[in-house]
């Protein structure tokens, strides 16, 4: 173990639900204080905050209402965490969205369903999925360096990429672009680990059963429950915790072709671990890609692509 989360403090954005909520829960269960930053809390997240709300006990969870597209509110996350807990040790800029209709390449600014106004000069999807993790990472590094971080006083930043960081997807090109960018961003910060004791890593999940999917029928039509396996948020969070605490990760999820996985992956700054029903290290060069491992497939994606062709055939962009 290179770094125990016991007695440490974490900031996790988007932890009001899904993968980030599971990560927050696992941090708390391992003795780490957590500031949950999100626009709101689903009932299960509120229950978690209530469970760890006692200021006289440790660990503790607090909720900070945060719009991750507003930089001032990102700064406030750190200010509140330091006031409540002291030094910040772990940061997960996990808030993200798939390509919802309100910010979508195929439903451009100015169309009836888009919240991206033609005169705003911004795509909400890029602000949430890419600009927010970049800015949060800048803030985290700044705070970490003020704490005299070194090889014996380590810090960690865990990002959420995706198998979309390698795969193309006609129906969601902006989302795909953001996840390619996150993987490249994480790898570019690899040297901070050895030089500054700041480990920047990422998970690249497959098809995860979270509200990001289950609350959106337009996405669920891409998945055939008879053919496609769902990955759980807890499975992804387990790997995220390992990226923080361990110097190596064994294949801790599921099996491949009926055989338990035994491969061991070294972990250091810049590591990107794909999480489907198995775990594998994603290489920066000549990687074979996610393939059709269980947990990586959405067999009926053509249904959503058909909608794109319909839009294009109806005078798209006019």
UniProtKB/TrEMBL annotation:
The keyword Zinc does not apply. Keywords: NADP, Oxidoreductase. Transmembrane segments: none annotated. GO terms for biological process: secondary metabolite biosynthetic process. It comes from the Eukaryota. One of its GO terms (molecular function) is oxidoreductase activity, acting on the CH-OH group of donors, NAD or NADP as acceptor. InterPro entries: NAD(P)-bd_dom_sf, Sc_DH/Rdtase_CS, SDR_fam. Pfam families: adh_short. PROSITE patterns: ADH_SHORT. GO terms for cellular component: cytoplasm. Belongs to the short-chain dehydrogenases/reductases (SDR) family. This is NAD-dependent 15-hydroxyprostaglandin dehydrogenase.
């Amino acid at each position: 173990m290179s770094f125990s989360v016991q007695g440490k403090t974490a900031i996790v954005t988007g932890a009001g639900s899904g993968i980030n909520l599971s990560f927050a829960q696992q941090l708390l269960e391992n003795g780490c204080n957590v500031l949950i930053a999100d626009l709101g809390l689903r009932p299960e997240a509120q229950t978690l905050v209530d469970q760890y709300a006692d200021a006289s006990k440790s660990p503790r969870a607090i909720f900070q209402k945060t719009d991750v597209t507003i930089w001032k509110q990102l700064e406030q996350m750190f200010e509140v965490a330091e006031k409540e807990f002291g030094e910040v040790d772990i940061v997960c800029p996990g808030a993200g969205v798939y390509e919802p209709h309100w910010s979508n390449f195929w439903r451009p600014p100015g169309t009836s369903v888009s919240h991206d106004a033609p005169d705003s000069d911004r795509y909400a999807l890029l602000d949430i999925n890419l600009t927010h993790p970049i800015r949060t990472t800048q803030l985290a590094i700044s705070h970490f360096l003020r704490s005299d971080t070194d090889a014996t006083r380590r810090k960690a930043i865990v990002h959420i990429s995706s198998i979309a960081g390698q795969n193309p997807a006609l129906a969601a090109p902006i989302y795909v672009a953001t996840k390619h960018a996150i993987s490249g961003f994480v790898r570019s910060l690899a040297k901070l680990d050895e030089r500054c004791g700041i480990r920047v890593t990422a998970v690249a999940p497959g098809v995860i059963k979270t509200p990001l999917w289950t609350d959106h029928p337009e996405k669920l039509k891409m998945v055939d429950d008879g053919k496609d396996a769902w990955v759980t948020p807890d499975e992804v969070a387990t790997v995220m915790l390992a990226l923080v605490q361990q110097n190596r990760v064994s294949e801790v999820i599921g099996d491949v072709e009926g055989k338990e996985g035994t491969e061991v992956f070294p972990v250091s700054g810049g590591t990107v671990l794909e999480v489907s029903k198995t775990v594998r290290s994603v290489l920066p060069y000549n990687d074979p890609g996610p393939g059709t491992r269980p947990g990586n497939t959405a067999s009926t994606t053509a249904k959503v692509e058909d909608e794109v062709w319909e839009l294009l055939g109806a005078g798209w962009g006019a």
